[in-house]
Amino acid sequence: MSGTSAALEPPVGATKPVRHPDAPAPGELLGPHYGECFGCGGDQPHGLHLAARAGEGVSITAEFTVRPEHQGAPGLAHGGVLATALDETLGSLNWLLRTIAVTGRLETDFVRPVPVGTTLQLAAEVTAVAGRKIYSRATGRIGGPDGPVVVRAEALFIEVEVDHFIDHGRKEEIQAAMNDPDQIRRVRAFEVNP
Ligand SMILES: CCCCCCCCCC(=O)SCCNC(=O)CCNC(=O)[C@H](O)C(C)(C)COP(=O)(O)OP(=O)(O)OC[C@H]1O[C@@H](n2cnc3c(N)ncnc32)[C@H](O)[C@@H]1OP(=O)(O)O
Questions:
Q1: In this prediction, what percent of the chain has a pLDDT beyond 90?
Q2: DSSP code, position 99
Q3: Which of 10, 17, 93, 115 has the highest count of CB atoms within 10 angstroms of its CB?
Q4: How many CA atoms, within 13 angstroms, populate the side-chain half-sphere of residue 84?
């Protein structure tokens, strides 16, 4: 049972999302947006190591395999970890809009338990845009891309300036990111947004 709250209903006048002309091609693996990210970073030993791929339009697919360090109940994925996988997949939609945005609201339905060892097949799309507000939804399935839905989410992301991270992040990590040429390159890709 999904219960979308009023905050996740696009307002009258919301528009369809527009894929940025420089968005990664459908099928292209996006790679981590930040090596230390708990969702996608390769430098986080206990992270999700979620791998996202550009889809058609403003959509994304992603995979995440539940490991023992992601347990809540014995042998089952922690719900917060599953919400993280959904959040990360939804956040990856930013690559296709070339917009920097953070999660304002994330509503999650946990439909079935997800065992350790399972690969979650995620799919997400932006449904509408209204000013700084980006409306999106995602599903996670097991047993393949056409398997049963085990989690789903609807979200509202809010567009921010890059200063959001500089102003609020801890200085050590901000400085390290600024000294990393790969990180600078990833951020610059978003600064060409028309
Ligand atoms: C390619 C990159 C891939 C990245 C993947 C990352 C995946 C992970 C994504 C995340 O997890 S991001 C981290 C978790 N999120 C945060 O830390 C965000 C914390 N919250 C904030 O910093 C601020 O609340 C926020 C920037 C979201 C909004 O503050 P602002 O002062 O900029 O905006 P404001 O409060 O004026 O809200 C702007 C509009 O959004 C609406 N809004 C904001 N938060 C809302 C909310 N929670 N629910 C509903 N509506 C919300 C707000 O009502 C308003 O609507 P109107 O324009 O119609 O008046």
A1: 88
A2: -
A3: 93
A4: 19
Residue in this structure with the two tokens 């891309």, named with its chain if needed: 145
* Nearest CA residue ID for atom 48, ligand 1: 105
Give the span between the Cα atoms of 107 and 177, in whole angstroms: 30
Kindly give the number of the ligand 1 atom that is closest to the alpha carbon of 131: 57
Q: Which residues surround ligand 1 with Cβ inside 6 Å?
A: 7, 33, 39, 87-88, 91-92, 94-95, 102-105, 131-133, 156, 158, 160
Q: Where are the domains of the chain?
A: 14-191
- E strand or H helix at 182: helix 181-191
For residue 98, report the distance from its CA to the centre of ligand 1, in Å.
17
Could you tell me the CATH superfamily of domain 14-191? Answer: Hotdog Thioesterase (3.10.129.10)
